[in-house]
Amino acid sequence: MKLTTTIAAGLSLLTAAATAEPLTIYAPDYFASEWGPGPAIKQAFETKCGCEIEYVTGDLLPRLRLEGDATRADVVIGLNTDDAERARQTGLFAPHNVMIDGLTMPVDWTDDTFLPFNWGHTAFVYDATKMDAPASFQALLDAPDTLRIAIQDPRTSVSGLALALWIHKVFGDDAEAAWAKLAPKIVTVTKGWSEAYGMFTEGEVDMVLSYTTSPAYHIIAEGDETKKAAIFPEGHYVMVETAAQLAMTDQPDLAQAFMDFILTEDFQSIIPEGNWSLPAKLDPAKMPAGFANLPLPDVALIYDSAEAEALRDIVVAEFEAGLGR
Amino acid sequence: MGARLGLIAAIIVAGALLLPLSAVAWRAEGWGGLDPSDWGALWFTLWQAALSAGISVLLAVPIARALARRRFIGRSMVIVLLGAPFILPVIVAVLGLIAVFGRSGIVNTALGWIGVETVSIYGWQGVILAHVFFNMPLATRLILQGWLSIPGERLRLAASLDFTATDTFRRLEWPMLRAVVPGIFLVIFLISTTSFAVALALGGGPRATTVELAIYQAFRFDFDLSRAALLGAVQLVIGGTAALVSLRLTLPSGFGAGLDRAIPRWDSRGLGLRAQDIAVIALACMFLLVPMILVLGEGVLNLTGLSAGVWAAALRSLIVALVAAASTLTLAFFMSKAIVDLPRGGWIEVVGSLSIAASPLVLGTGLYILLLPWINPVSLALPVTTFVNTIFALPFALRALIPAMRDLRDDYGRLSESLGIAGLTWVRLVAIPRLRRPGGFAAGLTAALAAGDLGVIALFASPDQATLPLVLYQLMGAYRMDDAKAAALLLVLLSLGLFWLFERGGRRA
C-alpha cells in the first residue's frame, strides 16, 4: 500500500514535470542570486523531483500584498519572524504540514504556517587586530564615544529592525536611553546590510551590525581570522528565516514536496556556506570546519511573530527618539 | 507635424508619470494624511536639494569656463571622465567619498599630519558633498554645451573690440548662463529631491530622512500605499513648481548663427587667467577622480575573475542602455521641437522635466499594479527597466536639445521655410547636422544612466534577468567586496564607453 502511494506521488510529480509548469518560489534577492544558497537548493530539489524551480526575487511582503489572490507564487522563502505576522494576516498561506523535531535552533518552534530554514544571532562584528570587544551590551553603551559603529535603519532593513527589537528586549523601558547612549558612537545608519558591512571592511568603522556567523565567511573564504563577533552575556536577538506555501497554489503536491525538503540534510547542508548562517536542523558534526570554533552566545533572545509585530512601531519610535530626531 | 508628434510624446510621458501614481493610490486601502515626520522629511529634502543644486552649479561655472577657454592634451579625456560620477552606483560613490573624506580617508589623514582637527563627512554636509560629487560634473557638462554654443564670430568681434575677460563675461557669457543655468539648476535640484540611500548613509541617521525614504518606509515597512502615493504626488508637485519657476527665470540668449568654428580666446591669454583655469581644472579632476580611483582601482585585479553571470548581466545592461538611448533621443527630439514651435510649449517642458522628480519606487510599484492583471510583470523586467530609464533620462536629453532646437528655429527657420525645406529633407539637411552634437551627448548620457540604473529592476527582476548594477549589490550582499569592486569597474567602463562612443559619433558631423 505504502509503495503504491509512493509511486502515485512519484507519478503525480512526473506529470507536474511533464506539464513543465515550474514551481514558483518567491525569494529575497540575496537568496536566489548566483552567490546565495538558491542555485544549489534548486539543483538539489530538481534532481530529486524531476521538476523545475523558478525563483522570483524582490521584496517579498510588499509584493505578496500587492498581488493578493492573483499571486503566482507557490512557495515563499525568506520571510523572517519579524515579518511573518503581517504575512500571516494576508491569509494567503496554508499550513506547512511538516513534522518539526530535532531543530538545531535555540528557540522552540510552534508555528504551523511558517517553517524555519535558517537562523542567526544579530551581533556587532569588529576587527580583533584593531580593538578589544566590549564585554557586554552595557559595556558597549558605556564605551568611549570615539568608538565608531555602522548600523542599518530599522525602517528599511530587517537586520536594523532586529537591532531595535534586541535593544528593546535587553533594555525594556530604558531602550530609548540606550539608543541615546549609543547615538554618539553610531557614525551612520544605512539603508541595508551591504552598505554598512562595506564601510566596515573598508576600515571606515570599527564595528558593524551583522551576525555572529559573519566571521565564518572571512575564515572560510578568505582565511582571515581577525574578524570577530562581540558576544554579550545579556543575549543576542535571533533572526529566523522561514518558508511557507501558498493556499492558492496550483501545484499543491509539488509545493508540499518542497516544504518537506526544507528540513532534510540535502537542503540544510547548503545553508552554512551558501547563506553564511546557521541551518535550522543539521547535525553539528556536519557543519563546515570554519563554523566549528565560532563563538556563539549562550542566551538567545527572540520575540515570536505576533509580539514582534506588536512592538514594531514602538521600537522604531525608540530608535528615532534615541537618535535625536 | 514634428511638433504634433512632440505633443503626443508629452502626453505619453505625462501618462507614464501619472498613471502609476494613480494606480498606487487606487490600490490603497483607506486614506490617511501625512505624518508630522513627513513634513520634517519634506523640509530636509527641499533645503538640501536647493543647496546641493546651488553649490553644484556655482562650482560648475568656473570649471566649464576653464574647459571652454583652454585647449590641452587630454582635454577630451577629462570631459568624458566628467560623466563618470553621475553614473556610479550609489554605494560605490559613497565608499569612494569615504575613502577620501572619511575618518581614515586622505583628507583627514593629511589634516592629522598638519595637526588640524579632523572633519566629519557624516551629517548634512556629507549629503551635500555627495550630491555635489554626483551632479557637479553633470552641470559642468551641460554648461559647457552652452559655452560651445556661443558662435565663434561673437568671440572674434569681442576680440576686435579689445574685450577683456570681464567684458566677455558680461556681454557674452552671462547672457548664455542666464539661458542655460536655470534649467540645469532645476534638474539637479529635482534629482537631489529623490535621493535616499546617499542621504541615509552619509546623513548619519534618522535626522537625514528624505521624502523618498518616507515613501520607501510607507511602502515596505507600513505598506501604507495611500501615504506612498500622497508623498509621490508631493514630489511631483514640488517638481512641477520648480520647473515653472525655472522657466520664468530663463532668458533666451539670442546670439544668432555662426559658422561653428573653434576660435582661440584672445581675451584670456593672460598668465593669471591661465593659472586660474589650470588650477580649477586640476582641483575638479582631483575631487572627482580620486574617490573613484580609490574604489575602482582594486577592481582591476579581480576583473578577469568575474563569473559568466556577471558578464551576462553586463550584456543585458548594454542592451537596456542602447534601446533607452534610442527611445529617449526620439522622444526628446519631438518634444523639444514642440516646445520650441508651439505657443504653449512651456508646458511640455514642465512635463519633460518632471520625471526626475517622480519617485522610482512609486513608479515601479504603479507599473507593477497596472501590468499585473494582464501579464506576469516579471517577464517584462527588462522592457520595463528600459521604459523607465527612457522617461528618467528625458529631462537631461531635453536640457541638451532645447537650446539647440531654439537656435535652429531662430537662425535657420526662415531660411528653411523660404527654400521650402520641410519634413524628412529638413531633418536630414538642417536638423541632423545642427543637432548632432547635443543629440550625441543626450544619447550618451541616457545610455550611461540606463546602464547604471538600479531603480526599477530590483522590483521586477528574476535571477536570470539581473542587470549589472543589481549583480553588484548581490555580490556585496554575499560578502564579495572584491568582486563587487570589479563589477563596479566594469559598470563604469561600460557606461563611460557608451558615453564616449555616442559623443564621438555626435561630434563627427
UniProtKB/TrEMBL annotation, chain A:
Superkingdom of the source species: Bacteria
Presence of the UniProt keyword Acyltransferase in the record: no
Gene Ontology cellular component terms for the protein in this record: outer membrane-bounded periplasmic space
UniProt signal peptide: 1-20
Pfam families: SBP_bac_8
GO MF annotations, alphabetized: thiamine binding; thiamine pyrophosphate binding
UniProt cross-references to CDD domains, sorted A to Z: PBP2_TbpA
Key word Signal present: yes
Compartments in which it is found: Periplasm
Keyword annotations: Periplasm, Signal, Transport
GO biological process terms held by the UniProt record: thiamine transport
Homology family: Belongs to the bacterial solute-binding protein 1 family.
Protein's recorded name: Thiamine transport system substrate-binding protein
TrEMBL record, chain B:
Alphabetical keyword list: Cell membrane, Membrane, Transmembrane, Transmembrane helix, Transport
Matches recorded under PROSITE patterns: ABC_TM1
InterPro entries reported in the protein's UniProt record: MetI-like, MetI-like_sf
Residue ranges of every copy of the ABC transmembrane type-1 domain listed in the record: 42-246, 314-502
Keyword Iron: no
Gene3D superfamilies (alphabetical): MetI-like
One annotated GO biological process: transmembrane transport
UniProt membrane topology term: Multi-pass membrane protein
Annotated CDD domains: TM_PBP2 (cd06261)
Protein's UniProt keywords contain Chaperone: no
Domain of life: Bacteria
Subcellular location: Cell membrane
Predominant cellular place of this UniProt entry's protein: membrane
GO cellular component: plasma membrane
TM region(s), chain numbering: 43-64, 76-101, 121-144, 179-202, 228-251, 278-297, 309-335, 347-374, 380-402, 441-461, 484-502
Name of the molecule in the record: Thiamine transport system permease protein
UniProt source species: Jannaschia helgolandensis
Record lineage: Bacteria, Pseudomonadati, Pseudomonadota, Alphaproteobacteria, Rhodobacterales
